[in-house]
């Protein structure tokens, strides 16, 4: 079977909502990563066959063919097409899957899979509220869906709480997990673990090259003081992912492109899996998706050296660990979205960037990434570091 390879992987540092990247148009964030991928690989920009861009909140500055606008803001020539996709939090992970499938099929040879999201300038859910602002329509879920599932809307907050309740996680359990995420991120920054993967961005206030949301002074007492997101619940802003501005991307090639452009790959894509399940509890799907990925790839749990499971809420990776039986020491070794942020559509290739660089830095072989997604969907990607 034809192979797909990752040639370069890069990301911006994560900017806090209304923080260092608040003054940057999201197309410029995406363009910075695209330019870095091209420059670091040394490939002719005109050789890029396509840009597949993940973005969740496609409204405002992230509307009107957002992916194409990233191309126009970048160093790529006008001849490079683009498309914008939405698979909720897994949007850019799915962009990677589409890019890999394109080069494996031979219909394209060199594709950028990326994601960009400014949660400051295009607030989460702002596109969802358009029907209400216009005073028309029923919103995304017609009565037929509401009646079928017995809900008026699908809520990730309720899904995260339902998972915490199902697996018996207390508020203290999840706060302890969150604090550990920050501590791992602090250690990673101190060790320079992110230096190779981060694209420095020049803002009006100076050079931005370090994740802004990490809290080196975090404590259990501070986390315990936060209000819960739902009455009587245990999920808080402290044990959930941070709203973040950022962009990320990977350059994907087949063997023909490697030879033609004299490129050296940094990873090989081993498995691409996507599954879907219960849309109400919603965020539990990474568990069956991971099991499916092992079945399809022929790999076993012990074969995987590092795992990246998106920390949308602490209960998600905690439930995944409990159900899959993975070694916690191999999970999110540099911290996760609770500390480093979750720029929605950019998180998929952001996690892949961190995973590939960590595997190579530690001399490890296999890495697995998975992501819970709105609607009860989950992507899993397995890669081999080269």
From TrEMBL:
Domain Thiolase N-terminal: from-to ranges: 5-255
Annotated ranges, domain Thiolase C-terminal: 263-384
PROSITE patterns the record matches: THIOLASE_2
Key words of the record: Acyltransferase, Transferase
InterPro entries from the UniProt entry: Thiolase, Thiolase-like, Thiolase_C, Thiolase_CS, Thiolase_N
Pfam assignment, any one: Thiolase_N
Transferase among keywords: yes
Family: Belongs to the thiolase-like superfamily. Thiolase family.
Protein name: Acetyl-CoA C-acetyltransferase
Lineage, uppermost ranks: Bacteria, Pseudomonadati, Pseudomonadota, Alphaproteobacteria, Sphingomonadales
């Amino acid at each position: 079977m034809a192979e797909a390879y990752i040639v370069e992987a890069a990301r911006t540092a994560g900017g806090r909502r209304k923080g260092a990247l608040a003054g940057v148009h999201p197309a410029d964030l995406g363009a910075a990563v695209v330019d870095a991928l091209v420059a670091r690989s040394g490939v002719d920009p005109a050789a890029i066959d396509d840009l597949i861009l993940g973005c969740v909140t496609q409204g405002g500055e992230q509307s009107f063919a957002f992916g194409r606008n990233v191309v126009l803001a970048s160093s790529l020539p006008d001849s490079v097409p683009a498309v914008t996709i939405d698979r909720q939090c897994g949007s850019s992970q799915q962009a990677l899957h589409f890019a890999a499938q394109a080069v494996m099929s031979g219909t394209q040879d060199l594709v950028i899979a990326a994601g960009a999201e400014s949660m400051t300038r295009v607030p989460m859910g702002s596109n969802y509220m358009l029907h209400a602002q216009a005073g028309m329509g029923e919103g995304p879920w017609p009565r037929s869906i509401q009646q079928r599932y017995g809900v008026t809307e699908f809520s990730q907050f309720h899904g995260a709480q339902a998972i915490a309740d199902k697996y018996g996680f207390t508020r203290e359990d999840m706060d302890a997990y969150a604090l550990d995420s920050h501590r791992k991120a602090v250690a990673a920054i101190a060790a320079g673990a992110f230096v190779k993967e981060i694209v420095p961005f020049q803002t009006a206030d100076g050079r931005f090259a370090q994740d802004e949301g990490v809290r080196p002074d975090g404590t259990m007492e501070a986390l315990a003081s936060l209000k819960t997101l739902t009455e009587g619940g245990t999920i808080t802003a402290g044990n959930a992912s941070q709203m973040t501005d950022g962009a990320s991307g990977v350059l994907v090639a087949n063997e023909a492109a490697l030879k033609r452009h004299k490129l050296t790959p940094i990873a090989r894509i081993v498995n691409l899996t996507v599954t879907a399940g219960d849309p109400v509890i919603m965020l539990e799907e990474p568990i069956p998706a991971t099991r499916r990925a092992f079945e399809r790839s022929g790999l076993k749990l012990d074969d995987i050296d590092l795992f990246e499971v998106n920390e949308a809420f602490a209960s998600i990776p905690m439930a995944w660990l409990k159900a899959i039986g993975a070694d916690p020491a191999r999970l999110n070794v540099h911290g996760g979205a609770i500390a480093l942020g979750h720029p929605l559509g950019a998180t998929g290739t952001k996690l892949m960037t961190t995973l590939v660089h960590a595997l190579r830095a530690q001399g490890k072989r296999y890495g697995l990434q998975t992501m819970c997604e709105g609607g009860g969907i989950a992507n899993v990607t397995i890669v081999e570091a080269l």
